[in-house]
Fold:
Amino acid sequence: MSPKTKVSLVRHLCVSLWMLTLCCCYAFTQNDYSEALTKSILFFEGQRSGKLPPNQRLAWRGDSALSDGSSYHVDLVGGYYDAGDNVKFGLPMAFTTTLLSWSVIEFGNLMGKEIENARGAVRWSADYLLKASASTPNTLYVQVGDPNMDHRCWERPEDMDTPRNVYKVSTQNPGSDVAAETAAALAAASIVFKESDPSYSAKLLQTSMKVFDFADQYRGSYSDSLGSVVCPFYCSYSGYHDELLWGASWIHRASQNNSYLMYIQSNGHTLGADEDDYSFSWDDKRVGTKVLLSKGFLDDKVEEFQLYKVHSDNYICSLIPGSPGFQAQYTSGGLLYKGSESNLQYVTSTALILLTYAKYLSSNGRVAVSCGTSSVTSENLIALAKKQVDYILGQNPAKMSYMVGFGERYSKHVHHRGSSLPSVHTHPDRVNCNDGFQYLYSGSPNPNILEGAILGGPDNRDGFSDNRNNYQQSEPATYINAPFVGALAFFAATPMAH
Structure:
């Protein structure tokens, strides 16, 4: 046997053994996943900014930031606070909207009674993004709140007295990354409401196209235009090319307008189509774009999209130990590990990608991805996604759920202002900027449970410190939850063989 054949055989055995370990045990029932699905959507109510509706279920929250934009003569009330602070950052909010919409588009038919709550969560941010893009042509409002001032205070959103500065991108100060992501979000949301609210859907799509034209025509990164107020918080490290291709792909999917197909064909190579990438996040959309466009090749046999199928396969192989293209890192407990801050954002987005790609492959009879000499099936992708989902929900070395309010043991010291301070309903007196820090540093559990929040998560040794001041591990974020909604919907509706 030649050395090359030996290496190939060893790799094949490694892949096969690893696949076998994925399928060994199932700790959660469909009812467990259903409960987690309900809570994962409920979390978004805890992040709401603006005037809360009568059907608000997380009752410890109150109205907040009701004059956002007024000093600039624009209505920017509403939207979501991105994480544990009180700033409305446009880039992660738009990405959250896109992924929440993608969750509903692919798996909304499996959500049962939760579909209305999921649509409500999409609409809450889509309404805000419409406001942010509606006032003046070629202008997009991308942030409310000075993050440097906000982070010097620890106060409830209901008490905010930090500056609510408004920041925008324009022809003079472009922001193709945030604008194209906003276009993607509006286009994806338009698909969510296509049947249930056609007029709203049409408005979303029409606005999406205008915002995308602005993003494409006036190119530049919002990090360059807005400097210290977006960096280092949500600096666009990957540039804006990935968002332009992502935005065009979503508008094409929503509209089936051939001009966007031509745009993708003409511009794909310069906007990142030829590059393999191995993570998918609020900053870098390349993996998501390739999986999204691979559907065009699998479903519609658009030959120009075959490239995206090839790159999607490369990404899948990068996740499989023993594969020639293996790139990923896993903890000894089996968690995909990308970075020390908010690592679970990569885990939840990967789970959605795996399940979506498995769906695309299965629906077209192409049940396997070739990773060297090994075949990775749709079932293997589902099993890998399930391993990650189950880890988050508590099947991990710490026996801890990283979803707040789910399971017997979960974080009680979440890095989140509103959750950690007494509710405005039980403690109506204002808690001023500096007075709130006693709650940040307190050893007491958070008085308000931020149900459904997925935290930043454990370190590369499966270790987790339930410490409110340890924001890298204990802070939740909307973009961690958004893709998890789709993954949970899949498992809540899919009986798994034991």
In short: The chain has 18 helices and five strands. The CA atoms of residues 159 and 430 lie 6 Å apart. The chain has one domain: 3-493. The mean pLDDT is 93.
